[in-house]
Design goal:
four-stranded antiparallel β-sheet, alpha+beta, flat, 4 strands
Length: 71
């Protein structure tokens, strides 16, 4: 999975997502070269849910079935 910046440059290539206790751990490379491990804690997941609106939740549920725009 790739995460891109607004200018379409690649920020991060996620190669693995795993569980470690109650945390979610993402492993990959930043800018294509620097290895990185990011951790999402339950507290941060709750903070994410506070930002969620019903409209955004519906979009996230349907996102895997949408096509990307070709700019």
């Amino acid at each position: 999975m790739k995460i891109h910046a607004a200018d379409k440059s690649e920020l991060m290539q996620v190669s693995k997502i795993e569980r470690k206790g109650n945390d979610l751990v993402l492993k990959g490379k930043v800018y294509g070269t620097m290895p990185m491990t990011a951790t999402l804690t339950p507290e941060e997941a709750k903070n994410f849910l506070k930002l969620m609106t019903p409209k955004l939740a519906l979009f996230l549920l349907t996102m895997p079935f949408r096509k990307s725009k070709k700019d």
